[in-house]
Amino acid sequence: MTMRRAEPRRKKRRMNELLERALFRPYAALMTLVEVVIDPIQRLIGQRRMGYFFVLPNLLVFGIFILFPMLLNFYYGFTAGNSILPQNREFVGTANLEALFNCTDFANPNTCQHDRFWRAVGNTSGFVVFQVGIMVIFALITALALNRDIRARGFFRGVFFYPVLLSPVVVALIWKWMLQPEGIFNGVLVSTGLERMDFLTDPTQARLWVIIVSVWAQMGFHTLILLAGLQSIPKELYEAAWMDGAGAWRSFRSVTLPLLMPTMVVVLVLSLIRAVQVFDQVYVLTTGGPGTATLYMVQYIFQTAFDRRDFGVAAAASLVLAVVLLFLTLFQLRLGRTSEIA
Amino acid sequence: MNKRFAFAVLVIVALIAMALPISAQGDVVELHITWYDDGTEGAVLRDLLDRFEAEHPNIKVVIDTVAYADLHTLLQAQVETGEAPDMARITFPARFLGNYLDLTPYVADPQYWLDNIPEAVLGSMQADAEDTGIYGYPTQFTVTGPFINVTLFEQAGVEIPADDATWEEWVAAATAVSEALSDSETTIYPVAIDRTGHRFWGPSLSRCATYINEDGTFTVDTPGFRSTAEMIIGWHNDGLMPADVWGGSAGNYVPAAPYFIGGQLVLYMSGSWQVGNFATNIGDLFDWKVIPNPSGDCGATGVPGGALTVAFADTEHPEEVGMVMDYLFSEDVIAEFYARTLFLPGHLGLIEKGVAYESNAEALNAFASMIPNLMPEAYALQYHPKGPDLNTAIRDRLSQVIAGEMTLDEAIERIQADMDALFAAASS
Which domains does chain B carry? Predict the structure, then answer.
């Protein structure tokens, strides 16, 4: 009997020993090795400065792949020529920026030296206003609907979020396939006796469809953020409002909107920044056409640099875009602080 | 102790085994050729190089295939940093002038090269008029020209116009075919031209446009340019051409080939490189053929083009590069390359003798027969250092006119201003 009882205990002990050998000893060896490296460094720079040592790898990656190209781009903005190497480029001061802003009438891009830049600025402004406006409104409506106790709520949440998981290129290709002259949309129109439509070859329609496609593709993400915001509002507030005789609209206006405002600000600023940077989806869908109807800032910069090899003007245009994005980011920070205080 | 000894022996054996291939490869020269593929030419080149490597075990040629869109930008960065590949297939020789390797001392018979490379092509790689170097050879020659869907003409009962017909006569006949065959569900477009200034040049030169001034700068506004631009804009206004080719893009080359392959296009202005594409994708679905370039008041010309394989001066192995280039441009090898890739020959001897194409010989020979009739200005435009910029400017500005963003007058003014700015920047 005693032998039988002792057997499992022995097995357990053996397992523990094996585990120790397999996991703990290598772990201990690794830690000793780390200590061998870290200890002298800590003695050298002091414990208080060890934080800098740990963020150094990340800082290096940031410096090499973000900060250095940014500085290089800043320098390129003040140079001219077709050479890629900075040392072979001629320093021209603010000539590129002056050329970009050389317009007789800013309302008419044809009077500007770089008319395509101003067309891109106009198109991007229009896109930002309409795309962000429509998307935020639709995301809010969808979030409000999905926050209710409706049937198959999980399914509908999945349906609205699904496009976010798709690559922008895939989204654009799917829609291009549907909107092309021989696509499924025109097929339906023709089969019902209607005339074909120029979805992507008529400037106004192309602008409209670019907005529709990007709203479809991105709305799910913003809906999710707003939904999280809605679910953080305590139900007791609605019950109290209901007891005070408030209807649905009043509850929305007096409870939902004020408490959702910080989340709305985040959604608004995030979508604003993303809209200003619009490129991949539109490039695949329309490549900026027809004419320059859907030519936006990032595509203008890309084409000026790599198709026309005018790196100086492209860099100057990207500096202008950077200022706009900087302004939007500061705006977000300020609003964030204001809402925190509130 | 025994275990330690065995372990030490194993480590030494492993180190020797790792070092062996390095020392064995020590005598092998590895050359790199930067390449892009439109079709099967990369595979054909690999096959030809495998044979070369079998005969020259001390030379290994690696083909680095890149996307055409990135090719010239990548090469420019490599050339500027002194890291250019040994060889490359390019289409804009003017971009790297002064950086090519003169093959004259490295090829067996330089006179063979001089005798068989067209003068304009040879000149396109030379830095100036005094430069007599040999820097590469034509990988392919292309000519712009139109195709027609013969089956559609037959179905519509419309007679195919004569070989010397004008653009107006061809478009009238194609419109008659379209009107006879289109219905509410199927649109047959009469005519389409690829979205590129390069395709525009041929018709405009035939209609008496002149571009290049005596000092090498451009003048855009000529009656020939205007009438050709008005013709193409008119095709869009009248719905004769698919709107999405020129109207649906803002910065890219767009071919109208899908419409022709789909049997929805009567007359398609493109070029010889489409023959292989049509052979593969149309097959027996319908009959098509190459027609001569339509006539204008000044003649009927297409525009040459194509790709060159060049050697770069940065190479550390000029002799081996010379051997590879000599092999690839030898008459038998280049003839096989052209025959298998269905490329028009850029080799003067083979232009004269003809190439035994594996298929579609009729269409390819129709294009080859256009080569002697190409206007000198067509060559001059193609190989002008600012030719690609003029091409882009024409494409983008006319697209803006088609989209209603500017008038033709404004577009011409813009193209001229863009070109003047380029020449001014170059001279400063």
Answer: 23-142+306-373 (3.40.190.10), 143-304+377-427 (3.40.190.10)
Residue B400 touches partner A, C-beta closer than 8 Å: yes
Q: Find the closest chain B residue to A309 by CA distance.
A: B73
**Smallest Cα–Cα separation from B84: which of B23, B28, B136?**
B136
- A273-308 residue pLDDT tens: 899 999 999 999 998 889 899 999 999 999 899 888
Residue B287: C-alpha distances to residues B149, B151, B153, B260, B278 (Å): 6, 5, 10, 11, 10
Judged by a CB distance cut-off of 8 A, whether residue B80 touches chain A is yes
Q: Which residues of B touch A201 (CB under 8 A)?
A: 243-244, 247-248
Cβ distance B402 to A291 less than 8 Å, yes or no, reads: yes
List the 147-206 stretch of B: residues with Cβ below 8 A of A.
184-185, 187
Burial state string for B169-184 with b = 16 or more CB within 10 A and e = fewer than 16: ebbebbbbbbeebeee
pLDDT in tens, B146-158: 999 999 999 999 9
Distance from CA of B49 to the nearest CA of A (A): 32
Per residue in B352-391, pLDDT tens? 888 888 788 889 988 988 888 889 999 999 988 899 899 9
Cα distances from A87 to residues A19, A75, A77, A206, B329, in angstroms, run: 60, 11, 14, 42, 38
- Please tell me the CATH superfamily of domain A106-341, with its number: MetI-like (1.10.3720.10)
Q: Is the dihedral of CA A86, A89, A95, A97 positive or negative?
A: negative
- Interface predicted TM-score (ipTM) of this complex, two decimals: 0.77
Comparing CB atoms, the residue among A80, A181, A293 nearest residue B403 is: A293
Which residues in chain A have their CB less than 8 angstroms from residue B402's CB? 290-291
DSSP letter, residue B285: S
- Residue pair B175/B239 in contact by the 8 Å Cβ criterion: no
